[in-house]
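Last lecture ended with a question: if I hand you only a sequence, what can you say about the shape of the protein? Today we answer it with a concrete record. The protein is Gluconeogenesis factor. Below, first the input exactly as provided, then the predicted structure, then a couple of comments.
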Amino acid sequence: MSAGRMRTHEPELQRVVVIGGGTGLSVILRGLKQEHLHITAIVTVADDGGSSGRLREEMDMLPPGDIRNVLTALADTEPLMERLMQHRFTTGTGLAGHNLGNLLIAAMNEITGDFVTAVKKLSRVLAVRGDVLPASNQSILLKAEMEDGSIVVGESQIPLAGKPIKRVFLDPADAVPLNDALTAISEADIIVLGPGSLYTSIVPNLLVHGLFEEIQRASAQKLYICNVMTQPGETDGYTAADHVEAMYRHVSVPFLDTIMVNSAEIPPHIQEKYAEKGATPVDSDIERLKQMGLSIIAEPMVTFGDGYLRHDATSVSKQVVALMNRRKE
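The predicted structure:
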């Protein structure tokens, strides 16, 4: 028998699709890449602030910031390379404020002539463990209708308005997703949303025409990892159930199977630090979640190492894998 026939094939990797943006998504991906999984990250492209906003406007490209964070989180590189990707220039005419990773994506975009191709090429350079896809290859502007009827334009401006948000919406409204993103969703064993800014990182992905419909059709388990703290200007006073209801309101139908909430007590000195900025712990609101028909994973899932709250990437990832394995049984 030939050597080729004698080889044993490893079982196919379970497929995880993680949807969102911002630092919360990157934290979770750092944990998931340590597991034996195939990861696809579908990332919002509505950012219009800082270095991303400048490159978006000056070079007529998709904003690279959230993509950069995800590439860095999934990269199999030395710590020095990660520092380089995240380095922000503080001096230099026209250079100050820009992030080196953003500039690398912009350069690759100019070389290849296509943002998605640029991300794929850079993924190979960084030995990224998984696939990183923008939610759409079209330039999207995020807008919000506030409870008082006023309209706020721009992802970076919405939390600064200081008003309760009624809904967010995309311009153009008919932005379409990548075919690769739809395929990843259809083949997923689990679809994970969050953690991250509810209205500016998570919901915008659900509004890309056709992407939510594919999520709804998918046989995969649908998991939402709820934020631990409220976000000033977005989710002031929100409970976990309020986060879920806001998503349902935007897509007009319940679609989640499971929610993960933090059960650990937040130390008073940490709460005080967040209270100075108007943030408070998110009440898990377990009874309302049960009434909504959701399975609930309530576990300690935060770290306090640097004086700030972070999701414990390892613990959360273990819970995600355990949830998939229970589904298989």
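Comments.
1. The first helix runs from residue 3 to 6.
2. Residues 270 and 308 are 7 Å apart (CA to CA).
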